[in-house]
Design a protein that fits this description.
Layout: H1 7-15, E1 20-21, H2 31-35, E2 41-45, H3 51-59, E3 64-69, H4 72-85, E4 90-94, E5 109-115, H5 133-142, E6 143-153, H6 156-167, E7 171-177, H7 186-190, H8 194-201, E8 207-213
Parallel strand pairs: 1-4, 2-3, 2-5, 3-4, 5-6
Antiparallel strand pairs: 6-8, 7-8
Bound molecules: S-adenosylmethionine (SAM).
Amino acid sequence: MRLRKKPWVKDEIVSYGRLVVLDPEKNRGQWKEWFGNDQPIHIELGTGKGNFITTLAEQNPSVNYIGVEVREEVLISAVRKAANKGLTNITFLWFNITKIDEVFAEDEVSRIFLNFSDPWPKSGHAKRRLTHTEFLKRYKKILERGQEIHLKTDNEKLFEFSLNELSNNDFRLKNITLDLHNSKFEEAKSVMTEYEQKFVSRGMKIYRLEAVYQ
Ligand SMILES: C[S@@+](CC[C@H](N)C(=O)[O-])C[C@H]1O[C@@H](n2cnc3c(N)ncnc32)[C@H](O)[C@@H]1O
């Protein structure tokens, strides 16, 4: 566990009960039972302040959502949003994505969202990118075949890297756009993350793809 800069955040996180799962490894293979239904599970990795996933949870009550975020100072904003909306089909993990396969069992996840992941531009840091082959291996352990990763980024180099990594690792790419907010993908542009709102307001282009695990 990393050092906590703001101890009150931990207290507030714990106060939200089921909206945050503090020991998620215990639910491995049993997330449907934990939610109490048979709905598909969609996860967002690096969920940040949570606008994207809480909006999707509100719009799609027949899907269960799990947001994963390691920085408690942003996670708390996401949890507050879910609480304010009274959502019951969502929870959050205060957890490091590097160990994601310790939290979900084989085929337990039906969709993975990667939104504005840190680009790690130095080549020596390539292994930290969330679309590096080593991360894709973990995603393939938990994602059902035929299901998808949806990725958005403002970073051209990360997008290029991700296209190559995904296509070299059993993913079929589709619905690619180099300018989401001037594209035909109405649904994808209708729900924005906090980073996306900032970049779009500055007139920056957003890259997006869908990758089917074959
Ligand atoms: C650039 S921000 C984007 C946040 C949000 N997806 C958005 O678009 O507004 C990337 C987020 O991923 C989180 N993150 C990066 N690496 C992570 C890891 N290994 N485990 C969990 N969260 C991580 C960071 O703490 C940060 O909140």
